Amino acid sequence: MTNRPVLRAVAGAALVFLVVLAGCGGHADQQSNSTAGKPVGATKGAQAPDFKLETVGGGSVQLADLRGQAVIVDFWDTWCPPCRRALPHLQELQDQYAGKLTVVGVAFGRDGQDAVAKFLAERNMTFTCALMDADFTTAAAYGGVQSIPTTFLIDPEGVIREIWVGGYEKADYEAAIRLVLGA
C-alpha cells in the first residue's frame, strides 16, 4: 500500500531542493514535442500544453477552457521572494484587462494547500490559483520549470507568446500583454 501524502512530500521536497539549487531566477529548460503535427511545448510559438488542475478554492481549471482570451500561467510558491514581488503585478493586470486576460497561478504548495489559500487571502489575490499535480506532469510539460517564478503568456489561440523566468515589473508583463491583445 502506498502512502501518497508521504510520496507527495518527498517529491515536493526534492523539487524544492532543485529549484533552490537552481536559484529563483535561472534559465528555464525548454522542450517541445508534437501532437497531431502541431508543435506543443514550452517554447515561444508552440501550442501551450493543456492541463487540468485542482484549484485552491475547490473545483478545477483547464487551460483549454480559457481559449479566446489571453492567459498568464505563473508557476510559483509562497516561500519564493521573487514570486511574492511578481504576484501583485499579475493581480493588477488581471483586474486591468478583465474579460481579456486570465491569470492562473500554479502553486507548488510546498507548505500545503492551506498555506497557499492563507497567502492568497492575506494579499487579496483573486486570480485563479491551482495546485501542482502530485506527479509534476504539468511542470514537466512546461519545460521542467527549473526556477520560480516562471511565467508564460498564452495568446487567445493557445500559443505561447512570452516566457519570463524570475520576477518582473508590471510594465514588462504589460508590454507583452498589449501586443497579444492588440491594445
Sequence-ordered SSE layout with sheet pairings:
Elements: H1 4-22, E1 32-35, E2 38-41, E3 52-54, E4 60-62, E5 70-76, H2 81-96, E6 101-107, H3 113-122, E7 128-131, H4 137-141, E8 150-154, E9 160-165, H5 170-181
What does this structure look like?
- Helix content is 34%, strand content 23%.
- The chain is α/β, with parallel strands linked by helices and 183 residues long.
- It has helices at residues 4-22, 81-96, 113-122, 137-141, 170-181; strands at residues 32-35, 38-41, 52-54, 60-62, 70-76, 101-107, 128-131, 150-154, 160-165.
- It has a five-stranded mixed sheet, with helices on one face.
- The chain is globular and about 40 Å long.
- It has a single domain, classed as 3-Layer(aba) Sandwich (Glutaredoxin).
CATH topology: Glutaredoxin
**Separation of termini?**
55 Å
CATH homolog superfamily: Glutaredoxin
Q: Order of SSEs, N→C?
A: HEEEEEHEHEHEEH
- The CATH class is identified as Alpha Beta
**Overall geometric form:** globular
Number of domains: 1
Overall radius of gyration: 15 Å
Q: Can you count the helices?
A: 5
- Give the rounded overall mean pLDDT: 84
Tags for this model:
183 residues, alpha/beta, Glutaredoxin, two-stranded antiparallel sheet, 5 helices, 9 strands, globular
Short description, anyone?
The protein has 183 residues and is an alpha/beta fold. The strands form three sheets. Strands 7-6-5-8-9 form a five-stranded mixed sheet, with helices on one face. Strands 1-2 form a two-stranded antiparallel ribbon.
